[in-house]
Design brief:
The protein is mainly beta. The protein contains one helix and four strands; from the N terminus they run βαβββ. It has a four-stranded antiparallel beta sheet with strand order 2-3-1-4, with helices on one face. A hairpin with a 3-residue loop joins β2 and β3.
Length: 95
């Protein structure tokens, strides 16, 4: 089974670049889980940063997640986290 973890945060005004650099610098290999199968980082208007990681693990497995940034004033609000089960890629031939 493939589990996808999403982490999304809104940067404090003018801090989107700093939040992006912080998120990209975070390591997620540990806690016996190994490294994710894939990791992608996105940005969006409104100074938002999104990180999605894919893991070969059961849905309820203990997996490393991005933490909240320290008290450096990077966030405009607390980060949001979601966990999903992958249904596979969409496209030609997909169910």
């Amino acid at each position: 089974m493939t589990v996808a973890l999403m982490w999304e945060a809104k940067a404090a005004p003018g801090r989107a670049g700093d939040l992006l650099a912080w998120a990209r610098a975070q390591r997620l290999d540990g806690a016996g889980a190994g490294a994710p199968l894939r990791r992608e980082t996105f940005t969006a208007p409104g100074e938002r940063v999104l990180v999605i990681t894919w893991w070969d693990a059961p849905y309820d497995a203990e997996l490393p997640e991005l933490p909240a940034p320290g008290d450096g004033g990077l966030l405009a609000r607390p980060a949001h986290r979601w966990r999903f089960t992958s249904l596979g890629p969409d496209g030609p031939g997909a169910p």
